[in-house]
Amino acid sequence: MSLGNIEFTTAFSVDNVIFGFDDADLKILLIKRAEEPFANHWALPGALVYHDENLRDAPMRVLKELTGLNNVFLEQVKTFGKVNRHPSGRVITIAYYSLINIHKVAPQAMSFAEEVSWIKIKDVDTLAFDHKEILEYSLDKLRRDVKLRPIGFELLPDTFTLSQLQSLYEAVLDKELDKRNFRKKILSMKLLLDVKEYQQGVAHRPAKLFSFDPERYLTLKSEGFNFEI
Length: 229
Hints:
The chain is α+β, with helices and mostly antiparallel strands. It has helices at 57-67, 131-146, 162-173, 179-188, 214-222, and strands spanning 2-3, 6-7, 11-21, 26-33, 42-43, 46-48, 73-80, 91-100, 113-120, 192-198, 208-212.
């Protein structure tokens, strides 16, 4: 491609930061690259944007190939465009984060990956390219977003206990929350439905199960309600 007498070639890509939660830990879905550059290194899944593809369709394509899921929560994070971020040439990438119920998927490695795995956020060390920077920026955005919007429910099963809900927020925010204050605040929002069921197959006293009421949230939001944890 040329602009006047300046010649340049630039590729655009997307990188998917896919978060999951397993009742105790916040995790990230990573691939182990099968090809150079960074063969055998863990990396974020992603892909180049096709010339005839809308930008948002690219991360959705990656999600579909990895998880088989459609209609996954997807949030654009930031564009990363340092000149030397990719050793093969100039690649500008747009990062997106997604929230997935970890128990609903059996991830499949993509064509350029030899392995795919859920890894605890706290266990992630080095990543290929600038993916550690992308992960850290996305995690920071998730922590800000989850306090102001009820998006954390995307990481939970359809029904959950209050303890599971608190554990989720503690894992995402990386801090302990006072049990009494958390329950008082979350119940006062009236966004949870009592499904009239209890946990099954647990060694301790079964806890009551709840579900999130998205219609109630939209109604309250239209009336000026602000979600805040």
